[in-house]
Design the sequence.
DNA sequence: CTATATTTTTACTACAAAGTCAAATTTATT
DNA sequence: AATAAATTTGACTTTGTAGTAAAAATATAG
């Protein structure tokens, strides 16, 4: 039986196959959303038969749930790293860069998150109003403190964060539009976007 | 027969019902994407039986197609209005405000567009590489001209537009996240977001 | 009011998708 | 090699969904 496994944890095959399945599921869920995705499609993408896939994950929701959980960790991580030590403007600009790199390196995760939120965040609402809000409130206080101390220009910390999330994730979520408008290949936008966003936020924050 | 209609065009009932159906379809497509949406759900939302709905629209794609067409017009309109007459910084900031108002007033349209692009833009790819690209190229040239003439700070015009789209549409597409983090009701974000984005782009563009 | 065009409903078909089960096969252990 | 455990497959049931057809009901024009 899958996942009952032995005392040393997962089998080699279990590790390989469930990773392959999650990778396939990420691709399909990111493109079609939870309801639009089909198990057949995911199984196909992973190179397995449907019953074989269902040997590893008991149903569609199970796969989705595991993916969403992983993404929330990845998603919150750069914000956690955002620390009070270091020069404020540089700290915020470094955060922008980290987020942009994530948009380049994990576009599917960004799209799955987008898809989930678009659908009303049915599986992560409590995460948003709980841990995310707590973390954002904390960092917002830090930003306000920086503003009051004159390290950065006064700015609405919440909307600053929204702007950072929006501009960086845009390159993952709307990459097709970005590439259509620029008539460029995959991720050619990165260098220019990086310079542009650095300038955008640096100009805003630099104390006058 | 529907849509064969009489010489004066559509019947009163045809006008009313097909509008009600499109409104319902917009809601459902925006939430679940094309594949995730079901005709039953749309019919339910519109208060009709499924066969009755299919009397007005021959299939699911038909509804989606009509919605997408309408949205592309609305979507491109503020960018078209973006004119060479008037003070450059004000012109761009006014564009930001128009886009933000659209995010407030037509969130479902924004989400449907987002959903379509997320899924690889299967129905609008030619619009993106054609009319949209042409229009963007044209406006990018105008912005570059403004920069060269010293009316605005030099800036990458394409990435400027991406930033504007990203920051404004974010409030429609991620409104659930925005409202969860702010712990606020619907659209309470508008006033603060408006001030924040004005400052963000005005600071960037103001010639130094 | 009545004839005609229209709208709506009921009953249906065909097919896609989720998920199960037991048998067959493969892999790991001794 | 023999055995046990893990993995894979094929055949299946059930439910959901798209779409059709023809009859019934309703609205509209003369």
Sequence:
């Amino acid at each position: 039986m899958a996942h009952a496994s032995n005392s040393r944890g997962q089998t080699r095959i279990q590790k390989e196959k469930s990773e392959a399945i999650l990778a396939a599921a990420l691709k399909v869920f990111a493109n079609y959303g939870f309801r639009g995705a089909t198990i057949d499609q995911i199984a196909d993408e992973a190179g397995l038969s449907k019953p074989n896939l269902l040997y590893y994950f008991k149903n569609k929701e199970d796969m989705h749930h595991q993916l969403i959980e992983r993404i929330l960790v990845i998603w919150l991580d750069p914000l956690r790293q955002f620390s009070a030590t270091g020069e404020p403007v540089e700290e915020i600009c470094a955060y922008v860069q980290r987020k942009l790199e994530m948009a380049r390196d994990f576009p599917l995760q960004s799209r799955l998150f987008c898809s989930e939120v678009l659908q009303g965040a049915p599986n992560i609402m409590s995460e948003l109003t709980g841990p995310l809000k707590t973390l954002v409130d904390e960092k917002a206080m830090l930003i306000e403190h920086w503003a009051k101390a004159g390290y950065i220009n006064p700015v609405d910390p919440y909307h600053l964060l929204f702007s950072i999330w929006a501009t960086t994730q845009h390159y993952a979520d709307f990459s097709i539009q970005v590439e259509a408008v620029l008539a460029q290949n995959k991720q050619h936008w990165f260098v220019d976007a990086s310079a542009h966003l650095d300038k955008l936020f640096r100009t805003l924050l630099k104390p006058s």
